[in-house]
Amino acid sequence: MHSNVHELIERYLSVSFLVNKKAVALVKCELDEMTNDQYYLLRYMSKRNVCTSSELAAVFAVNKSAITAMTNRLVEKEMIQRLRDDNDRRVIYLSLTEKGKTWLAETETKIHHLVESLITQFSEEEIESFIQTYEKLANILQKLEETK
Amino acid sequence: MHSNVHELIERYLSVSFLVNKKAVALVKCELDEMTNDQYYLLRYMSKRNVCTSSELAAVFAVNKSAITAMTNRLVEKEMIQRLRDDNDRRVIYLSLTEKGKTWLAETETKIHHLVESLITQFSEEEIESFIQTYEKLANILQKLEETK
DNA sequence: CGATATAGTTCAACTATTTAACTATTAAAT
DNA sequence: ATTTAATAGTTAAATAGTTGAACTATATCG
Questions:
Q1: Which nucleotide is nearest to B66 (CA to C1')?
Q2: Which three-class secondary structure state does DSSP give residue A62?
Q3: Which of A112, A113, B48, B85 has a 20 to 30 A CA-CA distance from B113?
Q4: pLDDT surpasses 70 at B2
Q5: Nearest-CA distance A76 → chain B (Å)
Q6: Which secondary structure element, helix H or strand E, spans residue A80, and what is its range?
Q7: Do B18 and A138 touch (CB under 8 A)?
Q8: What is the pLDDT of residue B142?
Q9: What pLDDT is stored for residue B4 in this prediction?
Q10: Which intervals hold domain HTH marR-type (chains A, B) (predicted)?
Q11: pLDDT, tens digit, for every residue of A2-24?
């Protein structure tokens, strides 16, 4: 073990927590009447087109009952809809409504402008290598989860 | 604007959210009876030695009333203590109790082992440059906040 | 002195989360 | 084929975190 691993860990813990807090606060400004978690839930569902509660619980690393609560709120807001699978009647598919798609599209535009104003302060090489390492970390965390 | 900035932003939004969720879930395993936010609050207070509610609210990017609620819970758990400033009696200083210091020290050891097992899967250069970019981002977010 | 600013708290309302117990449905075993 | 297991999702109670508005107390400034 290198002597400065300890220091690197300290720096990582501090900076990751701080950036997350500040980023969440910044993003929140663009999401009237919706929360950060709701935005990311819609984002994920939109990418997958259709998905289940269990899948969301795994991806978001929370219990299924937390997903039930969150999706209830999104259904109330008419952002998503539930559709029971006829082959396996235990399964309920979740998907965005037209209203959900519209809201997400508008929001993505705002968020992109926001992130773009930050990201363009770095060189493309720096950002590319930063995101690559970040993605590598995501894979390691994913594998770690699967082995548990 | 480069043609792939859009794609970089998408990748960043996805990966940052995912890593954060997974990391929080991992860290939580090491924190019996305490929450992630409580851990980071103690961590920050420990580094600063002594601090105020207003400072915490600014750093954690939340309202002061959120800090009151959180510090109440930490006082109940006897992890921190409040001490009124005699010069300016509006101000209340927060600091860790002995119990808080002990708990934090033990927890830091566990978290360090956890993060170390992840971080050592990268080369030192890769981690160093990753954290540097991360810190640069933190500074940009900090400045952005100050100008608002 | 009186107005204004600052530090912190309280309260009501809401979101997010966990755990345990539950319903409904499917798959597997004998 | 019928009982047993597992799977998908919900419900309910409890706790944590958060906001915003109204509030108390204290300090500063003109």
A1: D18
A2: coil
A3: B48
A4: no
A5: 24
A6: strand A80-84
A7: yes
A8: 87
A9: 86
A10: 1-139
A11: 568 899 999 999 999 989 998 99
